[in-house]
Each structure stands twice: as structure tokens, then as C-alpha cells.
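Intended use. Records like the one below are meant for learning the mapping from a protein sequence to its folded structure. Do not use them to infer anything beyond what is encoded.
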Amino acid sequence: MGACTCEINNEQYECFGVNCVNTNTGTKECEKGKEQCEAHSGGAILLFQPRIQQLSQSDEISCPEKKSDTSSLLNNWESKMAVQYFDTIVKKYGLPYIRVNKKGGFCVWKYDNIPEGDIHTRIVLKDEAIPHEYPKQHHDFLYSHIKVYIPPNKLNAVQNISGSIGYDPLKKELYARCGSFSANNATIRTVFDVLNDTKTKYEENINNMKKEEEHNIVYIKDELDKNHKQYEEEMKLYCYPGASTKCKPPIKMLTDKPSKKTNKTVVEKSDITGKTQIPTGKKYMKELKQFEQSSKSTIK
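Structure written out for the chain above:
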């Protein structure tokens, strides 16, 4: 079982749930600070109790460090922050699809790891701690990937939100990188604010990331649905319009619409501008037939 160090009246103990164990003097029951110890140790209780001493109100208990049950899976990593956050991800998404336990390694959660309705296409945890001073000092090591189309005219604005945003226009995949899901969600929320021309402040969104976390998740889910519907054709492209003027969404199928003024039918062909119209009708077909006949007689 996992345990953490307890300090009681300047004496060191191992904390197992409600008990802090000292092998020399026996067991002291940690009624004070019980929740702290349970949170750090997983609530395990040591059964042997040679002597139990009830703590007084003046006794001080601290459980500053958790020894993770899964930390051994990443025991060759150097980033302690990334290793510590590994447990948080495992509790929510299970063990990773890919795990590289060596210096500079990484873990990937995708496919069956990601439940239906989750915002992520994949999650990546890396053995790194990238210093980042905006909007406040922290370190980056957690990548949240989402599927989204960013129009070329919005790409610079999106990438200027933070240095911890990346976008692959061919995969239509954006990532936010920070030190927690809360921070990544606040960043992605800001991305959609920018796409919607909504007044927003990235610094405020990050500062309120815990308080607004539930709201941010719901907002991101709704905006992802809207984005996928709005840019359904762009999502099918194997190129990016921002990189080539020849890259355009697929031309829509021809649709027949009856004209209100005459009995003619107007066939609209929508190109990138949507302006091309080809008239048809009895008179047009008659003229076309006459033209074909005259062409045949000329060839003879």
C-alpha cells in the first residue's frame, strides 16, 4: 500500500490511512488530520497496534508527500511533476495505450482509453518540465489533443494566445500543453472564444480554471460539435487552404430549384464563391439541339 511521511511533534512516522506508525513506540491513531492521511495514502490501515495513543489537539500532523502505487511504472523518468500527475490520469482514463519508461519517455492515452463524449482525441504525458512564465510561472508536461478546424484567417490569433498551443492543419488537431487538465481546458476555452470573436482574457481564464472547470468542459463540448458541423467539408480536405489557394472544400452537388418567374429550371452549381448559375428550359434545350444539328452539317 502507498504511504506518506507523517510528522507528529517533530517525530517521523509512516502514515497508513488513519494510523501513523512508529516502529519503536508503536502506533499513534491519526484522528486529527485523518482526511489528509487518507487522501495521501489511499486509506490503508495498518492492522498491528502494540500501543495506541490518542493524539491531543496540540499535536501537529502533516502528510506532505504521496508515494504513488503506480510511480514504479515511470521510475526512470526525471520529471517528478509528470510522474506525480500520472496517477491523476490513470484514475480517470486507466493505464496508457503506450508507455515508454525511460529518460525523455512519454505515455499516450487514445482509442479505448478515451470514453465516448470526452473532448480528447488523445492525451500525452511527457517526461519533461518546460518552464513557462505566462500568465504565471509553471511547467508544461501534459498535452490535451482535440479535433477542430481552425480557419486560416484565425490561425495566427489562436496561436498567439499562448506559446503552449500547437495546431496540425492536416490532421485538424490542436493541442494545449500545461501542467493539468484544468489549465488545458481553460486554454482550449480561450481558443473557442477567439474563433467566435468573443471578448476574452486568457490570464483570467487560467486564474479561474478550477472554479470554471465544469463550465469549460461543457462549453468545449458544445463548440466542438458546432465546429465539426460548420466545417464538415473542410474536415475532409487533405490540404490546408491557408497553405495553398488551390486547396478548396469539395464542390457541392448540383441541385435543381424551380424558378418563381417562369417555368424554367435553374441549376445552381456552387463553387467556392457560390455565384455560378446555368439556365435550362425548353427554349434553351431547343437552341442547344439546333446548334448540335448545325455542327453536324458543317462537319459533313
